[in-house]
Amino acid sequence: MNKKQKQAIDRAVGYALSIFLRIPALILEKILRRDHTVPPRVPPKRIVVAKYLGIGSILQATPMLRAIKDKYPDAQLTFLTLQSNKNFLLRYDFIDDVLCVDDTSLLNVAATSFRTIAKLIPRRIDLFIDLEVHSTYGSLMSLFSCSKNRLGFSLQDKDHRAFLYTHLLYLNTNFPIRYCYSQIAQLIGAAPLSPEQGLLGPPPTDSESEKVGAKLGLIFDFEHKGIIVLNPNASDLRYERRWAREGFASVARYFSHQGYAVALVGSPPEREYVQGIIELLGGDANKVRNVAGVFSLPEFFAFLEQSSLVVTNDSGVMNMALTLRVPQLLLAGPVDPEQYFIPNEYRTYIYYQTYCSPCAHYVDVPPCAGDNVCMKQIKAEQVIDICERLLRGESVKPKRTVSLSFNSEVLGVLKDKGQ
């Protein structure tokens, strides 16, 4: 199942279940008369944090997880997520246990969800924090866990999911998401997020770093000044986040001519899309390599750490690089970069805010219908100039431009019966 199929099933099945369970859940709540005071009067013994989709969002939650564990060091902190994230999350010393759901098929989702609920109920969970905002599935899992207190986010105060929680926090999308996560942690007594606190990456082992070094020696078997990492990919929830392959090809061509090795990255399914950039380069691809799918997730962190610069669309790669002291340039459009990106003296972004941007996380179908005018305004010459400055160690102020028109075109039309 792709992400859009999961989203459609979540809305149809999840909505029906939430309506069906509304009255029984409210009746049971009245009968049990639990103490829902937060912060809890008695330190919780068992805490569950759930985030299923998006490794980037999970990384954004790591400061919150650390704060919760610091506040309640004796509590068992369990993370509920997809099976594909398990090994990655087990590397954190502040996470005690990881429970997983397999999303490879609808049948597997149902089977593993029932198994997970069967494990959660006997544990008598004190606090369940659901970090999914748009998922009814996440809300139902929090209810079925039978947790004493169930905390979640919402963009509004009343919807079909609201009754599934005991505490609902407004998600202010104008704030960086890591601060939103921090707010829900503060609700249960954890310390607020300090401005100096960055995202926490899983530390690679010495053997993984050595393995990556050996792979790089084989892949880039020529002299070079360093490795420029280019990520042209975005998830299927919003392909409009991609900058054009022609733009990435221009950047790759320029820096390979300057003596750098260029690595085009991605997951195994993205390898074919990445290869399209290699094909655009033709005879200029001598120092450019398609490494999509070459590294495991832990190895990929070690690989990024050994790079000279990362250039990426908004994606999980961006968040992975945020955990490291590696120069980074983000190319943003459908998502406001300040929501997830953390600019500093060695990280910056380019963002042209057209009338219809940001649209991701707000509408299912982008108003541009795939013609991502916000990303098209980013020029290869700009990207190359900022990359050169970052490579020289300069601090580059983020380029945020409000673009009121694009070729006199009206943007943001969601419905037009005349077409």
TrEMBL record:
InterPro entries for the chain: Glyco_trans_9, LPS_LOS_Heptosyltrfase
UniProtKB keywords: Glycosyltransferase, Transferase
Protein known as: Glycosyltransferase family 9 protein
CDD domains attached to this UniProt entry: GT9_LPS_heptosyltransferase
Keyword NADP: no
Gene Ontology process terms (BP): lipopolysaccharide core region biosynthetic process
Highest taxon of source: Bacteria
GO cellular component: cytosol
GO molecular-function terms, A-Z: ADP-heptose-lipopolysaccharide heptosyltransferase activity
Pfam family, one: Glyco_transf_9
